[in-house]
Specification:
Radius of gyration of chain A: 14 Å
Oligomer: heterodimer
Helix content of chain A: 40-55%
Number of domains of chain A: 1
Number of domains of chain B: 1
Strand content of chain A: 15-25%
Low-confidence stretches of chain B: none
Distance between the termini of chain B: 45 Å
Number of helices of chain A: 4
Distance between the termini of chain A: 14 Å
Largest sheet of chain A: 4 strands, mixed
Order of helices and strands of chain A: EHEHEEHH
Helix content of chain B: 10-25%
Structural class of chain B: alpha/beta
């Protein structure tokens, strides 16, 4: 299998799904910050950011789930991508300072998973994955 | 392209035996409207309710708002490529509008992304749709149906009902006729050689489920930037299929009545030469963002523009598209002005946008979405208050026992819309 993309996610629905040529890293975290931090580690190691870290137009303190797509290959630090993920982390911290992530009822929690999955899949479909 | 927009002023809406207009009153028949879409097996039940400005009425969760229009002459139909499957070019000829009336689709799609329209009280001040006479289509989905299927069903129902009501305007004599016209690029440039050539870059939300926009029925995430005649928007060539945070949302109504387009036409031939609209998308992949912002800059250069206005829809990732568009257009020697809303936190002290470039030195703010207000209880709720606390802008304790709501204004439909349809802005301190 030629693995070109890697999804870093804390979304169980994305983790369970099967995508062609796509690897997954599951991060056990209840908010998106953990996913952003893990992604930053990969960017430092030379992986490229393929999807925007703040995809979805959902504010970080409202959305419990995040899936970020990076290149599976690591071939040198892309500084612009590091800035982008750092900005994502900074923005997320800013939102958490004002208001913590609410405890959602199961149905709403599931809706957030569905939306995140759909956003990831729309990106994959447009870029030769899924 | 030349479009005559004939407005029939509607000053009241009532239920009646049939859907028609009489002396400025729009009558609608509930059964007639529901029968248009109720056979859709994704929909369990539906009802029609009316809401008028000043009434003690709260409408929530609002999915979309649309304006009833009909094409009287010229090719195509209103909402081309979506309703009736007539993919014909629109934007020419004559269109009649039931001005003052709106169709509001109401119903829970996912538990957090639709918003509120209050018809009176402080909440009403923040949304343009407290001033319209609203025909609310309240839809209940079939149990077990997936969100995306239900979103599509609710979207189609809204379009079908709106076009059906719009038909009532076909044979009426308009109270007012406005004419909008732009020429081909060369002819237009020659027409006002001393005025700056201005374009409008309209960024369409396009990230996935409930974050989609359609252009002539095509999912906007699959387009590359293209040129549109401003009058095409007035005939419904662009429709909303999304439920991003309510305050940022550009409902179909605002695409039909884009305040930026109207303002550019107002100044056309006087202060500026309005050359046309470039539409582009807001996709999640960085490669798409690169490709499409390159395309925007290329089109702006091909049109030989002196300046562009750029609007966005949503927050976060679209800010990156906004900045990429700005930077690349500026690098071609074309001036840009950005129009957006802000999310600087409740204290207003944090950075307002998730991205910024040094070329973004002219920006119009449409207000900040994190401001907290308390909206008084209303006598009547159209829809349900069930999800208020999990809606974007709401939180634990938002819904008070007496029915009042304390929430960030981002819970209100189009409260900080980047089309500038509201009264909010920023002040420098």
């Amino acid at each position: 299998m030629r693995v070109e993309m890697t999804i870093i996610t804390n979304n169980p629905l994305v983790n369970q799904a099967r995508y062609k040529n796509v690897a997954k890293v599951f991060v056990e975290t209840g908010n998106i910050q953990g996913v952003l931090l893990r992604t930053r580690d990969f960017i430092h190691k030379g992986h490229k950011l393929l999807s925007h870290p703040l995809s979805g137009s959902l504010k970080p303190n409202e959305n419990p789930y995040k899936s970020i797509i990076i290149s599976s290959n690591a071939d040198g630090l892309e500084f612009d991508h590091l800035i982008m993920i750092e900005k994502g982390i900074e923005t997320t911290e800013k939102f958490f300072r004002g208001k913590e992530l609410p405890k959602y009822k199961p149905a709403t929690d599931h809706d957030f998973m569905v939306i995140d999955k759909s956003i990831v899949e729309s990106g994959l479909k447009n870029n030769g994955g899924a | 392209m030349r479009l005559e927009v004939g407005k029939i002023f509607i000053n009241d809406i009532r239920f009646g035996e049939s859907t028609h207009v009489e002396n400025g009153v729009l009558y609608v028949n509930e059964k007639e409207l529901i029968d248009l879409f109720i056979e859709d097996d994704r929909i369990k039940s539906a009802k029609i309710e009316l809401a008028k400005p000043g009434e003690s009425v709260r409408i929530t969760p609002v999915k979309d708002v649309l304006e009833p229009r009909v094409k009287v002459s010229g090719s195509g139909t209103n909402f081309p490529g979506v309703v009736g499957n007539k993919v014909k070019q629109v934007g020419e000829g004559r269109t009649h509008v039931l001005s003052g009336a709106a169709v509001v689709t109401v119903g829970k799609i996912v538990g957090f992304q639709e918003g509120i329209v209050d018809m009176s009280g402080i909440g009403a001040e923040y949304t343009p749709f407290s001033k319209t006479l609203n025909i609310c289509v309240v839809i209940e989905p079939e149990e077990g149906i997936e969100s995306h299927a239900y979103e599509a069903a609710a979207r189609e129902a809204g379009l079908i009902v709106t076009n059906f009501i719009g038909e009532a305007a076909r044979n009426l004599e308009p109270d007012e006729i406005e004419v909008f016209e732009t020429k081909g690029i060369i002819e237009q440039a020659k027409m006002y050689p001393d005025l700056p050539r201005i374009g409008y870059v309209c960024m369409l939300q396009s990230q996935g489920l409930l974050h989609d926009t359609y252009v002539y029925g095509v999912d906007a995430k699959k387009i590359i930037p293209t040129l549109m005649n401003p009058t095409e928007f007035m005939d419904g060539a662009v429709i909303s299929g999304n439920c991003v945070a309510s305050c940022d949302k550009i409902p179909t109504y605002l695409h039909q009545n884009d305040p930026i387009i109207e303002e550019l036409f107002e100044k056309h031939g006087k202060e500026l030469n309005f050359m046309g609209v470039i539409i582009t998308n807001e996709n999640v992949f960085l490669a798409d963002k690169e490709r499409c912002s390159d395309g925007v800059a290329k089109l702006a250069r091909l049109m030989d523009l002196d300046g562009v206005l750029i609007t966005e829809e949503g927050y976060g990732n679209p800010d990156t598209d906004l900045m990429m568009n700005c930077k690349k257009v500026e690098q071609n020697g074309i001036k840009t002005v950005l129009v957006t809303d802000e999310f600087p936190g409740r204290d207003g002290k944090s950075e307002s946008l998730a991205d910024a470039v040094k070329e973004a030195d002219a920006l119009v703010s449409c207000g900040q979405g994190n401001i907290v207000i308390t909206m008084p209880p209303m006598d009547k709720v159209i829809g349900t208050l069930e999800d208020i606390e999990t809606m974007i802008g709401g939180y634990d304790g938002s819904l008070k026992e007496d029915g009042s709501i304390e929430a960030e204004i981002q819970i209100i439909i189009s409260a900080t819309s980047a089309f500038g349809c509201n009264k909010l802005t920023a002040r420098m301190h």
